Fold this sequence. Notes:
By secondary structure, the protein is an alpha/beta fold. The chain is built from 9 helices and 18 strands. The chain has a 6-stranded antiparallel sheet with strand order 4-3-6-1-2-5, with helices on one face. A 5-stranded parallel sheet has the order 9-8-7-10-11, sandwiched between helices. It has a 5-stranded mixed sheet with strand order 13-12-18-14-16, with helices on one face. It starts with a helix and ends with a strand.
Amino acid sequence: xxxxxxxxxxxxxxxxxxxxxxxxxxxxxxxxxxxxxxxxxxxxxxxxxxxxxxxxxxxxxxxxxxxxxxxxxxxxxxxxxxxxxxxxxxxxxxxxxxxxxxxxxxxxxxxxxxxxxxxxxxxxxxxxxxxxxxxxxxxxxxxxxxxxxxxxxxxxxxxxxxxxxxxxxxxxxxxxxxxxxxxxxxxxxxxxxxxxxxxxxxxxxxxxxxxxxxxxxxxxxxxxxxxxxxxxxxxxxxxxxxxxxxxxxxxxxxxxxxxxxxxxxxxxxxxxxxxxxxxxxxxxxxxxxxxxxxxxxxxxxxxxxxxxxxxxxxxxxxxxxxxxxxxxxxxxxxxxxxxxxxxxxxxx
Length: 348
């Protein structure tokens, strides 16, 4: 009897051990490496959506306007953008320029940049009516804050995030002025729509008037918020002209011109049990891809989030235009961000 009980106990213990081991492996497929909570490991954690191109038009020379439709598109607020996955797999960011009140519909505009990195050329060539696309839910780092008065400044395709702001400010009864510049009237989209706002919109086609006159920014009364989207020189000029630089809100389509000095540092890839050295003249992404060549990436400018990874230890010098403050507490974008110190440990 004792022998039967002993065998039963051993069998039970073995069964329990196997079950515990199975659960342990489920939690950490790379067991016996440490189990880590919610590893990012090579992809953005944000969910994706599917939408169909319902309309394609050209509101100006070299500008493509696309209306995307799907029944489950999330709500959004003025200033928001979406990450759009192009047919090639490239991820690009486009401001939503339609009406937030139109449920199930997103409108974006794409300026053709012949000497760019290829995203706009692909969009103009391949994105036709009926095409289905993958995109990520809207994110807003250019939120329109309540104010009694606004001065909006847009340069070229920078008008896209400003358009819904104008509608929102009008509905709220706020005073506002828009200063809108571009190379020529033919290159400036949405002029017909803006004409409905009368003299609150001041146009500055460069071939007619030169660069925008920022007197309205310089004369802004206390309590006025200034929103600007456009080329980096325009945003610098607006910031310098504003009486209160803290009242200026900027939206960039490219990284800041001067990201700051870079120094060499070390990255430990915890799950892979490897260590890589990042030279002062290279990105963390390039260094990691020497060891892990399948590490995904897309924009290489800190906008799309494809190379977002979990940081287990070390202080990060964040240089992206995407992550929220909460996300920056434990993750980074490898393409642009670096270590503040000598070493980072990543969940890779």
